[in-house]
Amino acid sequence: MLEEVTKTYQGQKKSAVGGLTLEIPAGSIVMFVGPSGCGKTTTLKMINRLIEPTTGKIVINGDDVTKMNGDELRRRIGYVIQAGGLFPHMTVSTNIGMVPKMLGWSKEKIAARVDELLELVSLDPEIYRDRFPKELSGGQQQRVGVARALAADPPVLLMDEPFGAVDPITRQRLQDELLNIQSEVQKTIVCVTHDFDEAVKLGDWIAIFNEGAQLEQYDSPERILANPANEFVENFIGSGAGLKQLTLSRVQDVELTDAVTTTAGANASDVLSQLQSVGANYAVVLDSRQRPLRRLTRRQLSRAQIVEGTMDPNLPSVSLQATLNDALDTMLVASTESAIVTGRRDIFEGVITVQTVMEAIAAANAAAGGDGEAPVGLNSGAINQVAIEDGGARS
Q: pLDDT digits over 129-180, tens only?
């Protein structure tokens, strides 16, 4: 909870943050958005006192953190920055285990925690724990950055433009991964972004700032899109608010299609016969942990004796947490009529098709342009405000 927090830099008449009061619901994701220089990053960094507030109180779990030792505070709060912020001379395991080591954890406990977190962010510990950051892709570095921030199991996680330095496809997958992780760990997450669509996708609540961190609207994505508080918010959202409503629809909200599945080493002719019997065009190859590796068409199977188990890096896949727009983009980029759907820990869940997405988008568009009423289940723009604290359910 921020109470009348200000930040005024020496020699400047205007405050970068002027008297901000804000409560963060426990266990939720709150997105800070606003124009460049509005104070959103300054506000984020005051929470863990990377920037010291000029006046005001910041309360986490009943403690006024402005009176705490800064180093101790930052060990209690996870922090993720753009491109992961990993130490290049340290291995992945050393990067992740750094804070637990400072907290006095045993080597055995740290090693177990590193492997647990690598699994959580969908990186195989056997493959990645001893690699250096330069040996990782941008997306992999960002996943390790998230794992490092979660290492000491902090109640609060701060993220500063965490996915701004990666390509659009990787960005979408990292967003989905964050939502999957949150469904398991239920942290209180505060995230700065310049991308309103990202805020709508990730946020349980969105705080829209104007200059000086003036809070123009603080509400759920649904309420902000349906009822912008003022002209500033309308202009910030921009045109196509109705289309932005579609980003609220998730892959998990639609019915998935079953698929023929197989494993590496299976008899290709047997799999082909199974495809022909059910009228399917391809089979999904899964590994021993039910994670999809590749798709094999009838033609590919007819030319093979056994099923290949190599990973296809271009496999069109989306998470259950992905938006329908994400799913459609994935299929368009891959020039395919369907995409693989994965759930927690990348486990195969089914297949989504272009037809399913288009039907859902048409239904959502009709509903959005129908009676014009606000989404059901929200309290007329008011937030059930809860101070930052350990635990808590998503709102």
A: 999 999 999 899 999 999 999 999 999 999 999 988 788 888 888 999 899 8
Distance of CA 277 to the CA centre of its chain: 39
Domain assignment of residue 175, given as a range: 2-240
Residues 162 and 80 sit within 8 Å (Cβ to Cβ)? yes
From 240, 266, 281, the end of a domain falls on: 240
SS3 content of the chain, % helix, strand, coil (to 5): 40, 20, 40
Q: Using CB atoms within 10 A of its CB, is residue 78 exposed (0-12), middle (13-18) or buried (19+)?
A: buried
pLDDT of 380 higher than 80: no
Q: Which of 129-138, 177-186, 246-255, 383-392 has the lowest mean pLDDT?
A: 383-392
Mean pLDDT of the chain: 87
For the segment 46-79, what is each residue's pLDDT rounded down to a tens digit? 999 999 999 999 999 888 988 889 888 988 899 9
Q: Is residue 375 in a domain?
A: no
**Separation CA 358–CA 356 (nearest Å):** 6
CA–CA gap between residue 166 and residue 162 (Å, rounded): 9
- 8 A C-beta contact, residue 330 and residue 342: no
The secondary structure of 36-78 as a DSSP string is TTSSHHHHHHHHTTSS--SEEEEEETTEEGGGS-HHHHHHSEE
Q: Taking Cα atoms as reference points, which of 112, 361, 117, 388 lies closest to residue 246?
A: 361
- Asked if the structure places residue 257 within a domain, the reply is yes
Q: For the CA atoms of 242, 243, 245, 248, what is the dihedral angle to 10 degrees?
A: 180
State whether 121 and 19 are in the same domain: yes
pTM attached to this predicted model: 0.81
Q: Let me know: does 209 contact 7? Beta carbons within 8 Å.
A: no
Q: Check whether residue 223 and residue 345 sit in a common domain.
A: no
Query: If DSSP codes are grouped into helix, strand and coil, which group holds residue 190?
Result: strand
Contact 284, 300 (CB under 8 A): no
| DSSP code per residue over 336-359 | -SEEEEE-GGG-EEEEEEHHHHHH
| Residue 230, φ and ψ in degrees, nearest 5 | -160, -175
Q: Which residues contact 353 (CB under 8 A, 6 or more apart)?
A: 257, 337, 338
Q: d(Cα 62, Cα 314) in Å, to the nearest integer?
A: 48
Question: Residue with structure tokens 């740290």?
Answer: 110
Assigned domain for 247 exists: no
